[in-house]
Design goal:
Length: about 120
């Protein structure tokens, strides 16, 4: 799993949360680092903040859909962008799910577990 989050403490917290449940997880603070990790790891699931400093999470989702189509990993927006319009834009860009910050750790873990189970089947 790859997590893209530009805020260092949030990134560290989210990566450690996922690792604590046995998910192999790496974190990136920029889209450039995200793509490097993505190509190295080949994850089934990616959690991406919309407001990254160098490219938006929307752009990452759009590029992922263009490059990989139906073979792309599941994409989850974990973001402070929480308006109804943000949710709609996330769906249009290619995100499968939208999780608002601050998130409930237990609910986020349950969502990720559900997604990884569905990808495995």
């Amino acid at each position: 799993m790859v997590v893209a989050e530009d805020e260092p403490d949030s990134l560290r917290t989210l990566v450690e949360l996922l690792r604590s449940e046995g998910h192999i997880t790496e974190g990136a603070r920029t889209s450039k680092d995200f793509w490097r990790l993505f190509h190295t790891i080949g994850p089934d699931v990616c959690l991406v903040d919309i407001g990254l400093p160098d490219r938006s999470g929307y752009e990452i989702a759009q590029e992922m859909s263009r490059r990989y189509g139906a073979d792309r990993p599941k994409l989850v927006a974990v973001t402070g962008w929480i308006q109804t319009s943000d949710r709609i834009l996330a769906r249009i860009a290619g995100f499968d799910r939208h999780v608002p910050k601050p998130y409930d750790p237990a609910a986020l873990l349950a969502l990720v577990t559900d997604i990884t189970r569905s990808v495995s089947n």
